[in-house]
Amino acid sequence: HSRKELFDKLRRFSDMDTVNSVLDLLEDAGLIDDETFAFQYAHDAMGLKMFGPLRVKRELALRGIDDDTAEDAIWAAEKETGSAEERLAELLERKYKNMLSDEKNRAKVINSLFRLGYEYDMIKETLYKLGLYLNKFSGIDVNDEQAQRVPYFNASKKNPKRFSASSKLNPIASNTLFCKSGFLDKKLSEIIFKFL
Length: 196
Prior knowledge:
Elements: H1 3-11, H2 16-28, H3 34-47, H4 53-62, H5 67-81, H6 84-96, H7 103-115, H8 120-130, H9 132-136, H10 145-158, H11 171-181, H12 185-195
Helix pairs in contact: 1-2, 3-4, 3-5, 4-5, 6-8, 7-11, 10-11
């Protein structure tokens, strides 16, 4: 347990000063060590539960671990469990590969991976690198710029505010287009803004 977790448990039975004194004694004796706890938690969460770094950091924060300690623990744990990109690729191949055949399921997979703590851009990049968009998405030829623009213009007619011609694509619009056609923000921006 972290110091905060123990504090919360003991606080129900005693006053704050007594609890802090007891926790200080335990810390001095080496029985409480938030750095060791953070590393072990990160290692188990990433290795067994396949959590991404964002989820691990959030869970550690709930347990009273500061940002620097959490980041150090995640970095150290990733040396043993593999990088977030590797875990994400393994998750996609092992658990979600057969769920990418239509737009609704793609959105569910992306949301599930996001809740597991993987960055949105990392999810899209990994899908792209694994080639899962090629045969699972809508069949749009990645070299046919005209064909790739179709989902954008169809979606922009339905909700023009999300798809305004600005220098940066709206994140909601980007997600919609990625689920519909499987191409990334950079490629999408090149195609759309080239013709606007």
